[in-house]
């Protein structure tokens, strides 16, 4: 009799098998990252990230594995059926891959298949977009509002579904929209504490700060940086969008300079991608809110993806730590 097919497991299912080394599994996954590397003995291998809507894991695929050439040909963004065995590396799930099959375009049309593979923002995207436009409408200064509108007339459709990052925070469909709305909510709540910050300029800066990511990132099932994203980066690309829009609506030069500065400095530190350090009240304010929501976005995602009974998440590079995923006990 032929061997029975293994039931499909999600990434969350696999992570719940903590300590079950060697247990066989099968999963449908997206190849999110496929980085070619060379071992100390000169042999090539791939450092791969595979995932579905419930999470992702990294694994190493050496050149003597039949999956090596298959994945090399399929590339990032392909969908694969993977059979392998559960394994761990430095405390993180890192399965040993066995049989790998690339799904054809016709296979991808199976009902519900893509829904199980594509991670979405937990909040409703249409509701987020409505709220986002409400924040634009609330900007009182006519030319600042017109500048923001002009940018989103150009990038609005892309902005609605683009992730906020490849992997660090809000790295899923509609993630950029969610991240920006969360920042706008925080901005509105915090502005009364800081009267030195111009409300219209800060809100405009928040709504525009990451618009360059609509150009920096590309891909449907796996996100990667585009040619312009690699050569210029989202900070410069966002600056270009804002400058073009500000000139178009004849925004005052001094206000435009301040708005451009928010975009250029919002990453906080040059080693994080900022073109300059924040040097206006509004730029400092926006940069701090961006950092807060980026880190809390990592926290929220780790909590959503935590397996039942899991006390700590895997190490989160953006936090330089694992995250305690169990809620506090209150007596």
Would you give an account of this structure?
The protein has helices at 11-15, 66-74, 113-117, 125-137, 142-161, 175-190, 199-208, 213-216, 227-231, 233-248, 253-265, 281-305, and strands at 24-38, 44-52, 55-62, 79-85, 88-89, 92-93, 96-102, 217-218, 224-225. The protein is α+β, with helices and mostly antiparallel strands and 331 residues long. It has 2 domains: 11-116, Nucleic acid-binding proteins (OB fold (Dihydrolipoamide Acetyltransferase, E2P), Beta Barrel), CATH 2.40.50; 125-305, no CATH class. The strands form 3 sheets. The chain has a 5-stranded antiparallel beta sheet. Strands 5-6 form a two-stranded antiparallel sheet. A hairpin with a 5-residue loop joins strand 8 and strand 9 (224-225). Helix 5 (142-161) packs parallel to helix 7 (199-208). The longest helix is centred in the last third of the chain and has 25 residues, at 281-305.
């Amino acid at each position: 009799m032929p061997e029975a097919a293994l039931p499909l497991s999600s990434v969350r299912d696999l992570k719940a098998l903590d300590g079950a080394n060697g247990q066989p599994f099968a999963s449908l996954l997206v190849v999110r990252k496929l980085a070619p590397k060379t071992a100390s003995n000169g042999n090539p291998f791939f450092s791969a990230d595979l995932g579905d809507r419930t999470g992702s894991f990294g694994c190493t695929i050496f050149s003597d594995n039949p999956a090596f050439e298959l994945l090399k040909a399929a590339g990032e963004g392909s969908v694969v059926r993977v059979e392998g065995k559960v394994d761990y590396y430095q405390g993180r799930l890192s399965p040993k891959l066995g049989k790998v099959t690339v799904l054809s375009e016709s296979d991808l049309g199976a009902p519900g298949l893509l829904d199980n593979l594509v991670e979405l923002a937990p909040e409703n995207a249409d509701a987020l977009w409505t709220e986002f436009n409400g924040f634009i409408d609330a900007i009182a200064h006519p030319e600042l509002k017109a500048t923001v509108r002009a940018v989103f007339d150009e990038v609005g459709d892309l902005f609605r579904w683009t992730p906020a990052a490849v992997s660090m925070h809000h790295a899923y469909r509609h993630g950029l929209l969610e991240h920006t709305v969360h920042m706008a909510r925080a901005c509105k709540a915090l502005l009364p504490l800081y009267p030195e910050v111009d409300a219209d300029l800060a809100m405009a800066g928040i709504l525009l700060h990451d618009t360059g990511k609509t150009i920096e990132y590309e891909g449907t099932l796996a996100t990667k940086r585009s040619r312009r994203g690699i050569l210029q980066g989202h900070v410069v690309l966002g600056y270009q969008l804002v400058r073009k829009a500000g000139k178009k609506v004849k925004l005052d030069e001094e206000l435009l300079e301040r708005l451009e500065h928010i975009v250029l400095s919002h990453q906080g530190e040059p080693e994080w991608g900022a073109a300059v350090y924040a040097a206006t009240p509004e730029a400092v304010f926006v940069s701090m809110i961006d950092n807060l929501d980026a880190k809390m976005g990592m926290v929220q995602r780790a909590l959503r993806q935590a397996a039942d009974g899991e006390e700590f998440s895997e190490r989160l590079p953006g936090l330089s730590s694992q995250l305690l995923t169990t809620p506090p006990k209150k007596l």
